[in-house]
């Protein structure tokens, strides 16, 4: 799989019959869809999009030009991370990722909704630090505390149970990125393992889940991309090695 992000003027690759996901490698919302595809063990193609210089054809699949967008049949697509992930879970019922109980499904969605304040604080800290206020830090930690309380209350390894489910894969992409904040000079957003022991254990467990491990990026990598974006030149292709030419070093003349 190439990590190259296609941009304005680039040609849409030919459709080969697989479901196709349009994403951006560093987008947490797109990662939600990738994790569900991985967890469902579905075959799919992944096309990365440069969101600053979007290829013209992305609007055929996502009217706002946002990702993720899922091309489920040639030329037919749906978009929005929650819509895409619930569609995939319902379309392919093997290995269900949502709770069977309607009340538990509703409670899972409430957890995701309540976690949005922590996500918003992350975006401010990472990409708009001049607008950062003490209330942002407070909202961030309240979100972590509430999440840890849910883990404690459910008493299971993951929120879904012994294995991660839709609720875990929906929230995880942000937890993955939260670890980059101290590297960006935002030590007040550090996840203190003494205060968040249960959450810290959960984070390490999620890193070892196959669906996550196959797509996981380190805190250092997320910090590097964030810095490039904040400088006004987001390095979308920092992971792409497809254009690297491997040449043997020339021997020095004696």
TrEMBL record:
Domain GST N-terminal: 17-96
Keyword match Calcium: no
Domain GST C-terminal, first and last residues per copy: 101-234
Membrane-spanning intervals of the chain: none
Cell inner membrane in keyword set: no
One Pfam family cited in the UniProt record for this chain: GST_N_3
Signal peptide residues on this chain, from the entry's feature table: none
Protein name: Glutathione S-transferase 6
